[in-house]
Amino acid sequence: MTAISQGLRDFAVQHGVARERVSVVEGGADVDAITPLPKAEARRKLGLPPEGKIVGFMGTFQRDLDIVMQSFVLLKEAVPDAYLLVIGTPFPWARQVAQQQGITERYLEAGRCTDELLPYYLASTDVLALPLKENLFNQTRWPNKIGEYMACGRPVVVSDVGDVAALVQAHGTGLTAKNDAVDFSAKLTTLLSDPALAEKMGGKARQLACAAYSWALQSSKLEEFYYQLTDSEKNGAGRR
């Protein structure tokens, strides 16, 4: 069995699968298609505000986005020139929340962008957000967006839930936050207020993506696991 996270591996073991029969192969990072780009150039190309700080969030289903939006309401008091950029298919409820919270002028929607434009949207940000509510789903999954986040060379603020939080803590590619808007906002503010720290963490993220999480490396890891199983089965059959 292959699992995409340590949490999912532990879940499988708890339900009777032998630990040695489970290999963890996380999602990868497309380090060739997504590369660090100059922030100013990316904003010009996309027509985004040239000045100010941009917090980015990417998500097909915009899961847990409400944490970021609540955090942004607090954040804009400390960083009044901040914007929130949401990349992915727009959901009406998000616009409604932005209007209710009085952040409409600071709320930007990229929509579902093309593969060609995605690197530019990611590069236009100062920090990227990965909110994760405390539940079994988030404890056992590997959010694919972390691969794109790392590849673009931007720091991340992630909820202290699951494998991604451990990854960020171990490699210094961003900051982890408690599962509430106040702490998430504080961590975003820290990175937005310290460009040198943000750049350092973003650089580490890109290095990690290339060194350990490229799709080429991850596919080789998966292939090696299957070869080991095949050899083990053959040897076992010979002994019998």
Note the topology.
Layout: E1 2-3, H1 6-14, E2 23-24, H2 39-46, E3 53-58, H3 65-78, E4 82-87, H4 92-100, E5 107-111, H5 118-123, E6 127-130, H6 136-140, H7 145-151, E7 156-159, H8 162-171, E8 174-177, H9 181-192, H10 195-212, H11 215-239
Parallel strand pairs: 1-2, 3-4, 3-6, 4-5, 6-7, 7-8
Helix and strand composition category: alpha/beta
Looking at CATH, which topology would you report? Answer: Rossmann fold
Radius of gyration: 20 Å
Percent range of helical residues: 40-55%
Which series of helices and strands comes N to C? EHEHEHEHEHEHHEHEHHH
Keywords:
Rossmann fold; 14% strand; 11 helices; 240 residues; 6-stranded parallel sheet; globular; alpha/beta
